[in-house]
TrEMBL record:
Name listed for the protein in its UniProt record: Proteolipid protein 1 (Pelizaeus-Merzbacher disease, spastic paraplegia 2, uncomplicated)
GO biological process, one term: axon development
Family to which this protein belongs: Belongs to the myelin proteolipid protein family.
One Pfam family this sequence matches: Myelin_PLP
GO cellular component, one term: myelin sheath
Length: 245
């Protein structure tokens, strides 16, 4: 066998779909976890500076933010290991399906492991769909806030109507109803929207939302490629008896 044929044979065993899904998953999780962690920190700073004067008003929010940041650490570690496991499983199933190593040698344990990965990845995709929807909530909040600020900038010649335009953090459940001031109105709100902290937080939430979408796409790609490879393994299993564990 020549060098070219050997290279083609090795490349034939590469699970390209799983490889692309792994890269998507790594980049999506990096965006979601990194940007989400920093966005939560900046959100706490914005609430503390402009929407609450008393520590007791936002202490619950601070604990929730800290809890979500710990969850982000766990998600990053879990998906890093799980994506590597899925990539390894993709190499196994692709090599067996394409008979890269000669005769077909898919074991019963290997097929059971592949089906377990398919079910687990499908469940993760459904759960991550909820995370994707949840990550849109802060983007929606900041979008409404930005739209209100643009309206204020347009109506700068009528101060009376400007003061009636407010963003109330209590309406979104970020603060208790007895929090003071709990909201920002008029030019105060416009000045908040012009700060670097606000713009950076808004952009970080958008990046985290995009990262959640990329991760969801990666999980769906994993599910499709793993299901296809498993179906091929089942088909080849009817033609040749693989070794059992």
């Amino acid at each position: 066998m020549g060098c070219y044929d050997c290279c083609m044979r090795c490349l034939g065993g590469v699970p390209y779909c799983s490889l692309v899904a792994t890269l998507l998953c790594f980049s999506g999780i990096a965006l979601f976890c990194g940007c989400g962690h920093q966005a939560l920190t900046e959100t706490e700073r914005l609430i503390e500076t402009y929407f609450a004067r008393n520590l007791q008003d936002y202490i619950t929010l601070a604990y929730i933010i800290q809890y979500f940041q710990y969850v982000i650490y766990g998600l990053a570690s879990f998906f890093f290991l799980y994506c590597i496991a899925l990539l390894a499983e993709g190499f196994y199933t692709t090599s067996a399906a394409k008979q890269t190593f000669g005769e077909f040698r898919s074991t019963m344990c290997g097929r059971c492991l592949s089906s377990s990965f398919i079910v687990t990845t499908y469940v993760l995709a459904v759960l991550w769909l909820l995370v994707f929807a949840f990550s849109a909530l802060p983007v929606y909040f900041f979008y409404n806030m930005d739209a209100t600020c643009r309206t204020i900038d347009i109506l700068t010649e009528t101060p009376a109507s400007i003061n009636q335009l407010c963003v109330d953090a209590r309406q979104y459940g970020l603060l208790p109803w007895n929090a003071v001031p709990g909201k920002a109105c008029g030019m105060t709100l416009s000045n908040v929207c012009k700060t670097r902290e606000y713009r950076m937080t808004y952009n970080l939430y958008i990046a985290a939302f995009a990262g959640a979408g990329i991760t969801l796409l990666a999980l769906l790609t994993y599910t499709v490629s793993s299901t296809y490879n498993f179906a091929v393994l089942r088909y080849l299993g009817r033609k040749g008896i693989g070794a059992r564990c």
